[in-house]
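CORE FACILITY INTAKE
Project code: CF-77B
Contact: R.S. (postdoc)
Sample description: multi-component assembly, two entities in total
Requested service: structural model of the whole complex
Turnaround: standard
Below are the sequence entries exactly as provided by the requester. Do not edit them.
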Amino acid sequence: MISRRTGTLRVLGVDPGLTRCGVGVVDVAADRSASLVHVGVVRSDPGMPIEQRLAAIAAGIRAVVDEHGPAVIAVERVFAQHNRESVMGTAQASGIALLVAGERGLPAATHTPTEVKAAITGYGQADKRQVQTMVARVLRLDELPQPADAADALALALCHAWRGGAPAAASSSALTPAQRAWADAERLARR
Amino acid sequence: MISRRTGTLRVLGVDPGLTRCGVGVVDVAADRSASLVHVGVVRSDPGMPIEQRLAAIAAGIRAVVDEHGPAVIAVERVFAQHNRESVMGTAQASGIALLVAGERGLPAATHTPTEVKAAITGYGQADKRQVQTMVARVLRLDELPQPADAADALALALCHAWRGGAPAAASSSALTPAQRAWADAERLARR
């Protein structure tokens, strides 16, 4: 899963949704530093039949995988807290993202929103703006990643790499204060 | 959607599930009479990673589609009434079935369990045994279709054809009493 040539891990993060599916690809080094490879949103027309919408999402995710060659796909874990049509659509879109991984022979992982927020900001209840701000800082972007789905996809990808997708950081010098706090909390939790 | 040659509609019904995904193919004539084409269960190993399980389900459903050439795929509609992992897995499997339809250029439809029970037995609260018994009678099977997932898939396929996938029945003479009661109820509901 780690490129022998560069020592970096390339992760595709997917924020699943039927109408808007955020996709973000990052390269994460062993020292936890990261760089942006690709970010975008795969869309499907709400007026189309569900089977065509899911096919459009699958095609969009496959295109990103084939163009950027991630080593792993990280997908937001969906919870069925409400019996809403949108939750089921989100679950179906997440299934499509996981399927694409399976069909391309890539490992997949799921992370909860709380895990992502904690990994990115050090605080599991962080709001969207805090996550976007930290993603922009980590990736050295001049502007906050837009739209929110795209930012969430990048956050997922970073979360996955930092939570163990990449080997343990050799040094904590590249961490932001929030990342260092999270790394410390992780170490404490493992004791 | 109706075969010009035979006047029958071939429907693939899918009872979605991660571990066991029922698949049933039936031919339904304009007079609502039906015959069994194929029935089975696509399985995935609970010990495998989710992305490989979904890929196995997609491959299994595609194989049925490619071998039997249905004109439409009917999938049970999943509700998120409980925040359980199994519900999300079922939703993901249903998304895979719908995706296969979209990728093969086939229309898809979803029906609720209540709609299926009502269409098959005339009673939306029918139990599994009643549904299996009626499916066996309609398809002139010597034994009840087994396992339950397979029977549910056949019921879904029949439900879809009877609820409007096939043109309105020219005559009600081929209907069982339960089917006739349902057809009458449908007519009343439309007034």
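Facility notes:
- Chain A has six helices and five strands.
- Residues 13 and 157 of chain A are 4 Å apart (CA to CA).
Invoice: internal transfer
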